[in-house]
Amino acid sequence: MDVLKALYERRSIKEFDPMHKISSDDLSTLLDAARQAPSSYNLQHTKIVRIVDREMRKKISAAAYNQPQVLSASELFVLAADTKAWQKKTERCWQNVPEKIRNFILKSIPEFHQNRPWIERDEAIRSASLMAMAIMLAAKSMGYDSCPMIGFEQEPVKEAIQLPNDHVLVMLLAIGKGVKPPYPKPGFIPMEEFLFLDHF
Amino acid sequence: MDVLKALYERRSIKEFDPMHKISSDDLSTLLDAARQAPSSYNLQHTKIVRIVDREMRKKISAAAYNQPQVLSASELFVLAADTKAWQKKTERCWQNVPEKIRNFILKSIPEFHQNRPWIERDEAIRSASLMAMAIMLAAKSMGYDSCPMIGFEQEPVKEAIQLPNDHVLVMLLAIGKGVKPPYPKPGFIPMEEFLFLDHF
User: Fold this and answer.
1) Fold of A3-193
2) What pTM, to 2 d.p., does this model score?
């Protein structure tokens, strides 16, 4: 499916066919596509936790105020991200570039992050959000619907997935076969509050 | 262009044809596609500042350590986001849904945000990052390359664009005609550090 068509047709869908399963081929395609999303310094902060176990789905459903898509979606991904990715074997992220470039980048990474704890969190959220959009559009192009979710209690989800202390939760992403057409798009703010020329 | 192809072929490009201009039709298509990206509670936190004035480009180039794409890209967008979008005329964001749903959502919005300053910033960054990915893929599908950038001094950019105090800077996004093929993808971390089943 064309990118623009996928962008216009992607909607946040809350009612999925609970019997539908995504084939392992499609799942691989989706996850491999997800990994093509960019991240700053190519640090690949994002982690996907696939929630497959039924009891785990129920725990997360309870934390998400019983929103129906948590249980009915074919796949439920918890997107998390590592705020300390910049300290972890970063040479792997640059293994395929000429040595001179690699050395320059590996030196820049700590300079950019150190003593700026706020940027560690921002970077983690940015990376996982870029990937989330990639997944939603890839899913749409493959015939699936999705629902990104931030309305859930963080602590029980962190506990359920055993989130490491240096990671942040970024969102839940439900993916499956929608069973009901969405409402019309709910409403746009005016263009002049979205687009500015040179300054606010 | 197909979504998966765009995802695989999108690369962060730093050398653009400085003479190329994006037509106003293409620019409109790109910006309208950008607005289709989701945001939580449809709050549309993201603001795009198009940097057109040459002196403004130079100021931002200086803040971005003279990275060449800031000056040579056909378009330079500063993506910012409003951390207080949840307090600003939110009824417009839900004007097209049935009243009962609108009322429920408009009541939920302050409940979700109030007394959680950290979520205001997270939400702003999430929304603008989702839109950034939408723009990069739409651009690719329209024959353009892009470069998302976070490596710049924030203060001079904030000052140049007169960023409101309740907004955050999320990234720079350069868009144009790449003039040089990119290096091979720099390197992936192993799948087992990306994908987890039910928990870490």
Assistant:
1) NADH Oxidase (3.40.109)
2) 0.98
